[in-house]
TrEMBL record:
Database matches in Gene3D superfamilies: HAD superfamily/HAD-like, Putative phosphatase, domain 2
Protein name: Noncanonical pyrimidine nucleotidase, YjjG family protein
Source organism phylogeny: Bacteria, Pseudomonadati, Bacteroidota, Flavobacteriia, Flavobacteriales
InterPro entries: HAD-like_sf (IPR036412), HAD-SF_hydro_IA (IPR006439), HAD-SF_hydro_IA_YjjG/PynA (IPR011951), HAD_2 (IPR041492), HAD_sf (IPR023214), PGP-like_dom2 (IPR023198), Pyrimidine_5'-ntase_YjjG (IPR052550)
Organism (species): Flagellimonas marinaquae
Entries under SUPFAM superfamilies matching the protein: HAD-like (SSF56784)
CDD domains assigned: HAD_Neu5Ac-Pase_like (cd04305)
Alphabetized GO MF terms: 5'-nucleotidase activity
Pfam family, one: HAD_2
Coiled-coil residues: none
Length: 229
């Protein structure tokens, strides 16, 4: 289905291979209980999830810093819930969230079978906007680190997807031409349009149930990759 021969596949990590929503929920259950913050977990997560996506969208556009992202997504959530909480507690929760997030290791359905299928046939890599100190731990503790030759993150690149520089850096490090590369990710803006602008081939893993678009093929389960490649 791809116009050019694919030799290298670049994956996004969160919401593509690593089950961010599930692992994040388990992390919040642990740290909210530890700090004795009395809040209904499901109600908290329902408010937090869209706020977190909004904050990440701002972060991608350099609208906020890493520290502001970590603070504001919690502050805004507690504000919506009308829960009074000190800045010291928010900062403690923000710190512990990052410290414990990678200790949970759930992967999205069919991640392992697909990586095991692709590994002998293609060179596999990661391009992520996540924070360097967390992403490497996620890969290692989830026991998928060994599948990937190059792991490129936004802190290493100095820019975030969809900025073309992070894709160029990934291609240069992997020593591969863009037309022989495939980017697989969940974000239309960051992964698909960003990689496509660099001349890479793209495959949209539709984790968020985005509406159909004409940019590329969309899949709803990673296992579909086995019938494509």
């Amino acid at each position: 289905m791809f116009e050019h021969k694919v030799t290298d596949i670049f994956f996004d990590l969160d919401h593509t291979l690593w089950d961010f929503e599930r692992n994040s929920a388990l992390t919040f259950a642990k740290i909210l209980d530890h700090h004795k913050v009395e809040v209904d977990l499901n109600g908290f997560l329902e408010i937090y999830a869209p706020i977190n996506l909004q904050m990440w969208a701002l972060y991608r556009k350099n609208g906020i810093s890493k520290s502001e992202l970590r603070y504001q997504r919690l502050k805004k959530t507690f504000d919506v819930l009308n829960i009074s909480i000190s800045d010291d507690m928010i900062n403690a929760l923000a710190h512990d969230y990052i410290a414990h997030l990678s200790s949970f290791t759930h992967l999205l359905p069919n991640t392992l079978p697909v990586l095991e299928y692709l590994f002998p046939k293609y060179r596999l890599h990661i391009i992520t906007n996540g924070f360097q100190e967390v992403q490497n731990k996620k890969l290692k503790r989830s026991s998928i680190h060994h599948f990937f030759e190059k792991i490129i993150d936004s802190e290493m690149a100095g820019v975030k997807k969809p900025n073309p520089h992070i894709f160029k850096l990934a291609l240069d490090l992997a020593e591969v031409r863009p037309e022989n590369s495939l980017m697989v990710g969940d974000s239309l803006e960051a992964d698909i349009l960003g990689a496509k602008a660099m001349g890479m081939q793209v495959l949209h893993y539709n984790f968020h149930n985005d509406p159909n678009h004409g940019e590329c093929r969309m899949i709803n389960d990673l296992i579909e990759i086995k019938s494509i490649l």
